[in-house]
What we know:
This is L,D-transpeptidase-like protein. This protein has 7 helices and 14 strands. By secondary structure, it is an alpha/beta fold.
Amino acid sequence: MQMNSASSGVRKTACVRIGGALAAFSLLFALPQAANAARQNNDVPAWLDSHVGDGPNQIAWPVLKRARALYMQRVAEGKVKNACYFAMDATKPNDPGDGKTGGRFYIVCEAAQSFEAMSAGHGSGKNLGGVADFSNGRTCARNFGNALDSNLTMGGSYLTSEIKTSFKGYYKASGGAQAAYLRSFLQFDGEGETANARQRAIGGHAAAKVGGICMMKNASSPYANKEGYVPFGSLITYAGGRSDGCTSWSPADASEVIGKVKDNPTTLYIYPESKDIEAVAKAAAAKAPLVNTGLYWNDDCLKAIGKPKFWAKAQLEPVIEKYKADHPPLPAKPIPICN
Length: 339
């Protein structure tokens, strides 16, 4: 699968943490109290308030509000015991164009008073050559949806689930040694408009792949085919790029995110949902400033895309299926043998 203080530019924030043994002890016992307090009081905790806003590496209030509500609800239901929850603002830019990546995926650990923002890729969409164009650029996403094989991001509520690790090929590591690249995939389970997340194979993974592949003789490898060959290429990272609808992070960030939910699921809320997209599109068409409507969209991206569009699966899936039937794939070419 493929895929800010204002004065310091776009960068990953430092975590705000309490330390030592007391932090670990508090983390174990503060979660129920934090959940109860949040259910009684919707105000953001004072330590978290400085991270709320429209600035670089801040989280917009509508996104945080929904992410917290989802988390507290799942905690109350006993479905989540993790001390942290996730959120993503897919209306923000991911690749500002200066060689850096934007902070729009959030890890919030309220009991530990920890907040972190990191880059995350959005769905690339597709351009079906004259039939339908629902493709997205690298920086801002205009198109969203939940259709199968659409490569689009779908906003809404998710729970993290199982982790699957698969071999992607060998590559030349530092020092010239050959290394096997194993990439972990964190499955998301959704509800409502995100309910087909598993059917769409939607989850999270590192924005990295082995590209430029040839087949290398390595009969002793546990990943060798029956002829004794393994795929070999170059390790490519694309943290500022797009995905096929999954959430993709830099390899280092992916390791951190996946490590937090290994055998301990939590919630992920991705903004925007279809209702948000349609309301903002209507306001944008009427040239109504969002500040006067109570709606939210990142200002820079809204200026870049004009207005967003939601593609419902009932609308888009028949179009994709007909296009695939009318344009059958060419026979796959054999992968060359490495020199």
